[in-house]
Amino acid sequence: MSAVMREHLASLNTCRLIRPVVVAAGAGLLWKYLPKMTEELWYHALQFLERYRTNNPSSDIDDLYQFADSTGILEQHKQMLCKPFTENQVDMKIMYYELIKMLI
To answer: What is the average pLDDT across 26-34?
Structure first.
């Protein structure tokens, strides 16, 4: 990921009021353009993010992967990012950034 993108994501994290707006706008755009078979996966991911945001952030990441995904995207995402997340090498923003890239 480029340094510009990292700086942009870091600046979004500093403002708690704008984060929900950005998430909603991104969700709205993605919802409009995602194919039908990934809509349920995206909805599941958004529900997990809401639980993660409102509950203890140390929520079990395995809850994200407890979804019957016929596309294989979630399994690929798990193989790529689950271990780095649990080892605190990546944060939730990066997890969702990569999931969005995989979905579109």
So the answer is: 57
Higher pLDDT, 59 or 74: 74
Helix (H) or strand (E) holding 66: none
* Residue 82 CB contacts under 8 Å (≥ 6 apart), including other chains: 61, 62, 65
10 Cβ partners below 8 Å, 6+ apart? Answer: none
**Eight-state DSSP code of residue 61:** G
- Please state, as a whole number, how many other Cβ atoms lie within 10 Å of the Cβ of residue 64: 25
pLDDT band at 11 (very low <50, low <70, confident <90, very high): low
Query: What tokens does 52 get?
Result: 């993660």
Distance CA 104, CA 88 (A): 26
- Rounded alpha-carbon distances, angstroms, from residue 49 to 3, 18, 91: 25, 16, 12
**Structure tokens belonging to residue 19:** 């984060």
**What pLDDT does 79 receive?**
92
- Give the number of other Cβ atoms within 10 Å of residue 30's Cβ: 17
